[in-house]
Amino acid sequence: MSLAKGFVIAAPRSGSGKTVITLGILAALRRRGVIVAPAKAGPDYIDPAFLGRAAMRDAVNLDPWSMSPARLKALADMQSTGADLLVVEGVMGMFDGAADGFGSTGDLAELLDLPVVLVVDADRQSQSVAPLVAGFANWRPGVRVAGVILNRVASAKHERMLTDALLATGIPCLGAIPRNPALVIPERHLGLVLPGEMASFENFLDVAAEAIGDYVDLEQLQALAAPLAAAEQVVAPLAPLGQRMAIARDDAFVFLYPHLLDGWRSMGAELSFFSPLANEAPWEDADAIYLPGGYPELHGATLAAADGFKAGLAGARDRDALIYGECGGFMVLGEALVDKAGVSHAMAGLLPVVTRIDRPKRILGYRRLVHGGALPWPGHLNGHEFHYSSAKQSRLTPLFAATDAVGQAMPPMGAVIGKVMGSYAHVIDAA
């Protein structure tokens, strides 16, 4: 049982700077000798990569829409074991959830019984910050806003106007961070670029940590942390896809949920990792191969030339190993991938599917998934879909029947031939 305390970093809306501020807090506390355990609300894959680099400890996803309360509490407890502080970055605005209204950062804070630090973008406002903060603080009795961090403050005069106004709320202002063009992370079609793609990420982290150390009261921030809600019970993880699993992992296959890997290891599965971009093949005796999501559209030519990787997949299919691809992995299992420039690249050819991203259309949302195939998982699953590519496929047996967050029927998802299967859905947990 963890004895750590924690807090949640939220904001009134997306784009307020909570990711950068969370990174700065993690790095600043770590450099002061505090052992920080990072977590990310929701299904996001990219922010956890940044949080893990800042904390020097892998981040975990805590998704209150897809995961049961027992799962969330158990994961939070496990993540904070051996740490002094659990720091959870929220998602979107504090009360923004799925289309059915559930799954918000506020929901997670209430469930874990953790206080909230509200990051407010102060750009182009002054005294109006007080009713904004008061509204969020009083919206739901079970959600405790314990402090405010002001971001993108224009001047000392601007700061005084803001902090004077906040006095009426009774909620302490923990700091006011000036505008700084250096505190920006580049973005692309699925969100932020990955930290490994920033040539100066460590320098960026230094700037963020310095800003937090200079302008935020870290002692007061740590003092407002509260103990986690107790984990209620042991929750069985999703079963491993096989007992000897080969998992693709490199710059084209980066979207892996740590809670799944940890669960598979806890159930005795042997996990190995290989790089398709380096033309590596999976274990020759693997009984399951997992191709997770990522950015195959950025590496079409390299993957097309990876004959050893593709031969390894074909050999696994021929020996009846389970081969499962999610989103980018599903794209690679197909016949071809058409990149942003309209160039077609030959993929593994295990499913008669052609995917393309030269006509981008954003598809985003939670999914309830039903399957009856070879996946060793419950028939009802919760997942998430986020991509700009599209798939054209011949008449095939779909992998999943799907509905969206409000129960609206979606077109069947993915394809399955024998024990080769995939779809655009990222599976998170059992329904």
UniProtKB/TrEMBL annotation:
The gene is cobB. The record marks H426 as: Increases nucleophilicity of active site Cys. PANTHER family: COBYRINATE A,C-DIAMIDE SYNTHASE. Its cofactor is Mg(2+). It comes from the Bacteria. It holds the Pfam family CbiA. PROSITE patterns: GATASE_COBBQ. Catalyzes the ATP-dependent amidation of the two carboxylate groups at positions a and c of hydrogenobyrinate, using either L-glutamine or ammonia as the nitrogen source. The a and c carboxylates of hydrogenobyrinate are activated for nucleophilic attack via formation of a phosphorylated intermediate by ATP. CobB catalyzes first the amidation of the c-carboxylate, and then that of the a-carboxylate. Gene3D superfamilies: 3.40.50.880, P-loop containing nucleotide triphosphate hydrolases (3.40.50.300). Belongs to the CobB/CobQ family. CobQ subfamily. Keywords: ATP-binding, Cobalamin biosynthesis, Glutamine amidotransferase, Ligase, Magnesium, Nucleotide-binding. It comes from Devosia epidermidihirudinis. This is Hydrogenobyrinate a,c-diamide synthase. It catalyses: hydrogenobyrinate + 2 L-glutamine + 2 ATP + 2 H2O = hydrogenobyrinate a,c-diamide + 2 L-glutamate + 2 ADP + 2 phosphate + 2 H(+). Residues 245-428 form the CobB/CobQ-like glutamine amidotransferase domain. Its EC number is 6.3.5.9.
